[in-house]
Amino acid sequence: MATSFYALVTNPVARLARRGKVFIDSPMPLPPEPPPDPGDARIKGLARGGCLWLALLTTLLLSGILLWFADLRENQMFWRNAGGYPVELRDLVETSFYPLALATCTGIFLLGWALLFRSRSSPAVWLAQVLVLVISVMIVLGAAVVAFTNNVSNLWNHRPLHAHPEQGVDE
């Protein structure tokens, strides 16, 4: 006999029936259970998986910004103020590239660790979350390739490793 927790708490006969001491045909009927609130399940689902999705999408956004900053850092016109870029953007890229890279890589590592041990979600949801994380990793690797190819190009053309025109090294 399956009796809900609500019935066990509110009806002493149901408690006794659960223990097998009272027949179900007792004079005191079980009270009806209240209908479940449909909004309650959505809130619980959002609290369970929504925070992980928010962190994954934030990491994806940070990865995209990191790729954009890596492309700007290796663009010679960006550092000469000749491409129409604002000076504030140049200062932002110069000061925040490495902290952004550290935050993005840390987020990818922690989310990868969390997804590795996550077993509450369905396989389809878990696979979608892993796919978003893999896309973030690919974008970060793309930013690393942009920086690596520019540094190899600098070495190949006998310039310093991280040469930019702002440092007085022109082509």
Primary descriptors:
171 residues, disordered C terminus, single chain, 2 domains, mainly alpha
Nearest-integer average pLDDT: 76
Q: Kindly provide the radius of gyration, computed on alpha-carbon positions and rounded to a whole number of angstroms.
A: 29 Å
Helix content: 55-70%
Element-by-element helix/strand order: HHHHHH
How would a crystallographer describe the biggest sheet?
Answer: none
Give the tally of β-strands: 0
Low-confidence segments, given as residue ranges, are 165-171
The total number of structural domains is 2
Gap from first CA to last CA: 84 Å
Multimer state: single chain
Q: What fraction strand?
A: under 5%
How would you classify the helix and strand content by structural class? Answer: mainly alpha
**Structure annotation, total helices:** 6
Q: What global shape is seen?
A: elongated
Summarize the structure.
The chain is mainly α and 171 residues long. Helices cover 69% and strands 0% of the residues.
Question: What does this molecule look like?
Answer:
With 171 residues, the protein is mostly helical. It folds into two domains: 34 residues, no CATH class; 123 residues, no CATH class. Helix content is 69%, strand content 0%. The protein contains six helices and no strands.
What order do the helices and strands come in, and which of them pair?
Blueprint: H1 5-10, H2 12-19, H3 38-73, H4 76-79, H5 87-116, H6 123-156
Helix pairs in contact: 3-5, 3-6, 5-6
